[in-house]
Please model this.
Amino acid sequence: MTRLNCRAAFFDLDGTLFHSLEAYRSAFNHVLEQFGLKPVERAAFVRYFRHMENGGRFPEILTQLTPDGAEETFLRRFLGAYREVFPGMDRAYTVMDDAAPAVLRCVSASLPVAVITARRDPVPTRALLERHGLVPFIALVVHPREGVAVKPAPDQLIEAARQLDVPAEACVMVGDSPRDIRAGRAAGARTIGVTPPGGAWQHDDLHRESPDLVVDRLAEVPRALGLGLGER
Model:
């Protein structure tokens, strides 16, 4: 396996450190049922999720799910209901393959670790990390804010590198989506794609973004960084 020599490690949150796709689908279906609409099967939801990750808009998805197309009033009501459900959604998250604590413990023993997330509210994010025992291994969490754009822009990674006083070129971005790889490459960082079973993205999706490495499991990341976990 290729080994990357880095001075800091950045991890995506949803889909990388946590299984989150089913929690998103459950929340989405809960709101659909509130409005008398049929829940979506997993395969369909993955298509919608990928559409959103690639820059699609939520109303475009809802229009496909309503018999006569979604009117603006309905869209506003649906989005309002979804935002009410969303904050509690991460209670259904599980750590990625039961490996996230061990991986972060191993990596953080040698490198500072930052979490790069699209979530804007730090309070529930910290609560999630605390619930799963990850806080002791994380030096900082970088949220998007004014002047710091969300991935695939490199802003969050550059901000993390600045706060850690490490050149972005000496960092590695670990993530499960094309956005993660694009952000890492745009920042000049090394990149590792992770394609866990049940994820929204496959090897081919990430290889098209030209990462330095793609692995099947989060537990393989320390080995890719020349660290101990995953040597067996």
Remarks:
- The chain is about 40% helix and 10% strand.
- Residues 21-34 form the longest helix (14 residues).
